[in-house]
Amino acid sequence: FFFFFFFQAEDGIRDAQESRGLGDVYKRQVSTQSTGSTQAKSSIMFTARQKIKKEKEAQPSDLENQVAQALVDLEINNEELRPTLKNLHIVAAREVVVNKSSTAIVVFVPYRLRELFRKTQVRLVCELEKKFSGQHVVLVAKRNIQDKESHHNRKAAKGQVRPRSRTLTAVHEAILEDVVFPANISAKRTRFLQDGTKLIKVELENPYEVSEKLDTFSAVYNALTGKNATFSLPASE
Prior knowledge:
Elements: H1 25-49, H2 62-77, H3 82-85, E1 92-99, E2 102-109, H4 114-118, H5 121-131, E3 136-141, H6 148-155, H7 168-180, E4 185-192, E5 198-204, H8 207-210, H9 214-225, E6 228-232
Parallel strand pairs: 2-3, 5-6
Antiparallel strand pairs: 1-2, 4-5
Helix pairs in contact: 1-2, 7-9
């Protein structure tokens, strides 16, 4: 299985009420551990819900809750990741089919937090893949594509220009860089096939870190952009 990567909702926690009946001391003692365990579990879930912030208060999926809980577990138990993870959250997560026997997880992170994620991304992805039984995980920043015509209609009179970073081409290029991180793109060319379709051929550096994920990169990039791409590494000397 593989994972990739682009969270939000809050649950109130109701305090457990103690028994008030006479001669009920033993009952309270026996139930203390159970009550404490339930409260701790609820507290952990409450914290996990803070790790995913969805748009328009949408409810997170089961997968998104699982990724959020994994982030909470790492924040609690991993001293190296804790300082960074306490300030991070995700906005979405989805599974992408890589082949008949495997899927990957794409985790979407807020665009404004992308650089903070990258500081520990290699270690974070490694730990997440352990928690998801070896599925590949990919982190992708959440970006918005701005429609040219609608923007023109609203802003042309004010002399404002659509930022290049929000064009379709720029967003797809940025997604490509996110998908292959921490590898670097050393070369890229577009090939036109006989049936009229396009195939993007991407050459990467850092072969030791991504050599087993090339098919995952292709599947994820296609799922996010609708474009076909193949990835290769430098030939071994």
